[in-house]
């Protein structure tokens, strides 16, 4: 490998935030026609590295070369001009604009001195069709699910013709089919000589698509490796800086132990619950001390059923019982009164209060539940916050750090902590481990099982089947807006779930 | 299906237009002589300057900011115009130019402070407002008449549309600016960047939009537009006084909100402000026709309307949040 082929070179990059050395003398090399994965735990500095490249953040020292020419982008505006197209970690689009406009804003086609809206819509449809997606592009972006928003962001980045494509966790909300589509396009671009930087916490995706892996840990470069020559265990060991075998064993055992205590006292029960157009009537029972899973592909109706259960979408059929008493849940307020809590998949837009501290964010829901008047002593707040910061390994100088200053994955952890700390009787978790690194994932799973062991009911939705299999004691399977079956105990396995979905019935 | 459903983003605007028509109908039924073209046209004639600042106010609010300086800038405009004409004996064209330059400069400085010095828009434009009012009195403490023939001609010329119904030149100017603003807001990159920044400034930045430039430009444009409104105001009053157009910025904000612009930014139509102004104007007219009511009732009515509109908007927003079904998409295999 000569140096001629080098597309991007970053030399000795340093970047410091108050109290955090986000990048400490990091080198990075991307070649033409290469897909380069960047791996590391939450807060390792992955996003900061690419933000330095695209001009969002400014390095204190170090040099960046693009095709051999030194560059130092001052604003993210310069990156596209240099030929760098980026999907940032959290979907960064404008919710108030249409899908089409989100794809084209800043580079709208002009005709006769006016933006040619017809052309914008037409070309957006084409851009989305490349991702095998067809939708009403004139609809407001926030009318679509997070996964679709992520696809829109990808469509935008792909449509900007560039030399370098940067994808920071583009697949966190996507299912297998969509990921496959994205990979197909990435391979094509790679064969055309584009260099692609790909950040993800899904290691199987790293192995499926990447040629090179750069590993970061605590802002430092662990090394750059050829994917083919680095096996998975070595990769994990290098990311977490611990011997992996031990690490995995302890997690697995802990998870099992906690899962033992489920009993079958129903906390929540619904018959014929449904809402026309979004989810067909279904029955469901969630026991105290049980983790109930909702499985299915994207759009199968799992999120929709959770929304109906929580009253976000008012059900138009069915009856519900809580603790064997008939209740009506028409709005989220009804649900909250009954002791439900809902950690939605839309955490970025619905959850985070970026300018409050970690401590304040974590106790928010608990405070809400206890009532505004109820006093949570500062000491108590600190204890709760410290507990979760430690459990979930939230990387931060202190619990008084503003959440907006945390890495993407660590923000997710804070939000999750908020809901885990609510003391809810029924906790609905929609994609709780999205964007979270493997170490913390195991901790979350453990916490979920711990909650169940304490007699709480948990409703879990996750696209990661292995996570569902590990945590759930029962699982409802959805397909085409319909509940098509239920698995329990030993029946629960990835294969059985897939079979149920494929068979259409149990 | 697409054509049958009214896009929900138009609902506040349609409510506003509907309300205007309803008020006009109510007036026509209740009062003799109300139902006439001239009554409607007078709304334009009397409020041309307010329509103009209503437009720029809407754009700044969509950007996620606010401009409190526009009323004071109108007063300053008339003062600068009067001074240039009577003391400096400038050609009217130069006087107009001087007004536009002064007001644009005000807008630019405010925009610069907001963008690069991170001033709150409220504070920066509040300062601008005080400075502009102060400057008026530095120039002259009293009312200064404008006697320049060009200004007088512009003020007195009436253009007959149909027999018995005429408009002033100011109305033409205002309508041209309305068209211009619709073009800017919906058909230029600058206008769309304004919406994007109002929607999510951080995202707009990451998408590579020229956020800083757009913000400074939007405030400069607002200043410039206040200058235009100031000229039109001169055509209306033919005099300058430091206390003219007092609290006009509040009317402009009210017009924008009644017109469906959300104070949180990112949502609204500049054209809404026009109807907002028309509604404020028609209530004034209704109260005049009533005869025995104090004209301050207009204020109370506007206040009441504002509350209603904010509630309506809140309800609409909440409804869309609550009923937000995840929109269907097709996956092409
Ligand atoms: N604006 C900021 N102010 C202060 N600290 C920051 C800021 N942005 C990032 N950091 C810190 O820099 C470190 C690296 O963050 P970065 O976002 O690069 O992590 P990451 O590797 O992308 O993690 P994740 O997998 O969670 O996305 C973290 O400790 C984070 O808290
Ligand atoms: Mg990151």
Question: In words, what does this structure look like?
Answer:
The complex is a heterodimer of chains A (506) and B (333). By secondary structure, chain A is α/β, with parallel strands linked by helices. Chain A has 18 helices and 23 strands. Chain A has a six-stranded mixed sheet with strand order 6-10-11-3-12-13, sandwiched between helices. In chain A, strands 19-20-21-16-22-23 form a six-stranded mixed sheet, with helices on both faces. In chain A, helix 9 runs parallel beside helix 16 (438-453). The radius of gyration of chain A is 23 Å and the shape is globular. Residues 256-262 of chain A have low confidence and may be disordered. Chain B is mainly alpha-helical. In chain B, the strands form two sheets. Chain B has a two-stranded antiparallel ribbon. In chain B, strands 2-3 form a two-stranded antiparallel ribbon. In chain B, helix 2 (37-62) crosses helix 12 and helix 7 packs across helix 8 (189-199). Classes of the chains: A alpha/beta (506), B mainly alpha (333). The A-B interface holds A 56, 75-77, 79-80, 86, 88, 92-97, 101, 105-106, 108, 110, 113-115, 129, 132-136, 138-140, 142-145, 148, 156, 177, 277-278, 299, 303-304, 312-313, 331 and B 2, 9, 183, 186-189, 192-193, 195-196, 198-200, 202-210, 266-267, 322-333. Strand 9 (133-134) of chain A pairs antiparallel with strand 5 of chain B, so a sheet runs across the interface. Adenosine-5'-triphosphate (ATP) is lined by residues 17, 20, 22, 40, 42-48, 89, 395, 405-410 of chain A.
């Amino acid at each position: 490998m000569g140096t001629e082929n080098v597309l991007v070179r970053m030399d000795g990059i340093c970047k410091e935030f108050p109290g955090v050395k986000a990048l400490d003398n990091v080198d990075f090399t991307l070649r033409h026609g290469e897909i380069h994965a960047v791996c590391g735990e939450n807060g390792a500095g992955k996003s900061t590295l690419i933000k330095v490249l695209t001009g969002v953040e400014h390095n204190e020292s170090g040099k960046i070369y693009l095709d051999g020419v030194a560059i130092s982008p001052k604003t993210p505006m310069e990156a596209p001009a240099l030929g760098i197209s980026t999907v940032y970690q959290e979907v960064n689009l404008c919710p108030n604009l249409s899908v089409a406009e989100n794809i084209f804003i800043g580079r709208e086609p002009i005709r006769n001195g006016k933006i040619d809206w017809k052309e914008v819509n037409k070309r957006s449809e084409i851009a989305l069709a490349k991702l095998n997606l067809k939708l009403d592009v004139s609809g407001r972006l926030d009318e679509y699910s997070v996964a679709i928003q992520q696809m829109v962001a990808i469509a935008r980045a792909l449509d900007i013709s560039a030399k370098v494509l940067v994808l920071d966790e583009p697949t966190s909300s996507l299912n297998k089919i969509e990921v496959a589509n994205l990979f197909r396009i990435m391979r094509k671009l790679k064969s055309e000589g584009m260099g692609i930087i790909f950040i993800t916490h899904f290691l199987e995706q790293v192995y499926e698509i990447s040629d090179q892996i750069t590993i970061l840990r605590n802002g430092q470069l662990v090394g750059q490796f050829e994917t083919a020559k680095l096996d998975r265990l070595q990769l994990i060991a290098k990311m977490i800086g611990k011997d992996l075998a031990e690490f995995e064993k302890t997690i697995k055992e802990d998870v099992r132990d906690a899962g033992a205590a489920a009993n079958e006292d129903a906390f929540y029960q619904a018959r014929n619950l449904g809402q026309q157009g979004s989810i067909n009537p279904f029955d469901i029972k969630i026991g105290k001390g049980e983790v109930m899973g909702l499985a299915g592909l994207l759009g199968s109706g799992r999120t929709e059923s959770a929304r109906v259960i929580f009253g976000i979408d008012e059900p138009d059929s069915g009856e519900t019982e809580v603790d064997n008493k008939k209740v009506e849940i028409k709005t989220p307020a009804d649900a909250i009164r009954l002791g439900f809590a809902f950690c939605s998949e839309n955490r970025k837009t619905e959850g985070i209060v970026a300018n409050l501290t970690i401590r304040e964010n974590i106790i928010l829901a608990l405070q809400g539940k206890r009532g505004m008047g109820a006093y949570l002593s500062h000491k108590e707040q600190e204890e709760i916050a410290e507990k979760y910061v430690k459990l979930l390994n939230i990387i931060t100088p202190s619990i008084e750090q503003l959440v907006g200053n945390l890495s993407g994955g660590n923000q997710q952890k804070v939000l999750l902590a908020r809901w885990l700390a609510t003391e809810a009787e029924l906790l609905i978790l929609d994609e709780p481990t999205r964007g979270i690194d493997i170490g913390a994932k195991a901790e979350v799973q453990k916490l979920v099982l711990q909650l169940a062991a304490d007699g709480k009911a948990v409703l879990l939705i996750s696209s990661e089947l292995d996570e569902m299999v590990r945590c759930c004691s029962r699982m409802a399977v959805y397909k085409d807006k319909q509940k098509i079956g239920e698995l329990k105990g030993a029946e629960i396995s990835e294969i059985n779930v897939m079979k149920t979905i494929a068979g259409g019935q149990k | 299906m697409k054509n049958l459903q009214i896009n929900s983003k138009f609902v506040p605007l349609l409510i506003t237009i509907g309300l205007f028509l309803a008020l006009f109908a109510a007036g026509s039924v209740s009062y003799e002589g109300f139902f006439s073209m001239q009554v409607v046209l007078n709304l334009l004639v009397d409020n041309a300057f307010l329509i103009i600042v209503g437009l720029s106010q809407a754009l700044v609010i969509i950007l996620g900011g606010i401009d409190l300086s526009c009323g004071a800038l109108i007063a300053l405009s008339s003062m600068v115009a009067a001074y240039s004409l009577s003391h400096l004996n400038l050609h009217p064209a130069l006087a107009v130019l001087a007004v536009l330059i002064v007001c644009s400069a005000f807008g630019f400085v405010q925009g610069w402070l907001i963008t690069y010095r991170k001033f709150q828009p409220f504070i920066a434009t509040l300062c601008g407002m005080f400075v502009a009012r102060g400057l008026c009195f530095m120039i002259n403490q009293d009312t200064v008449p404008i006697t320049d023939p060009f200004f007088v001609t512009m003020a007195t010329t009436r253009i007959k549309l149909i027999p018995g119904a005429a408009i002033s030149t100011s109305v033409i100017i205002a309508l041209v600016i309305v068209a211009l603003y619709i073009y800017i807001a919906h058909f230029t990159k600058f206008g769309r960047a304004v919406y994007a920044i109002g929607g999510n400034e951080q995202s707009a930045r990451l998408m590579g939009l020229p956020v800083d430039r757009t913000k400074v430009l939007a405030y400069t444009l607002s200043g410039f537009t206040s200058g235009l409104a100031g000229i039109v105001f001169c055509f209306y009053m033919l005099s300058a006084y430091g206390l003219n157009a007092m609290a006009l910025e509040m009317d402009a904000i009210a017009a924008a909100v009644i017109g469906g612009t959300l104070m949180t930014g990112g949502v609204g139509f500049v054209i809404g402000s026009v109807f907002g102004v028309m509604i404020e104007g028609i209530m004034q007219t209704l109260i005049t026709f009533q005869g025995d009511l104090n004209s301050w009732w207009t204020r109370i009515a506007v206040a009441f309307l504002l509350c209603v509109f904010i509630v309506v908007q809140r309800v609409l927003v909440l409804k869309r949040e609550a009923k937000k079904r995840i929109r269907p998409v097709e996956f092409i295999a």
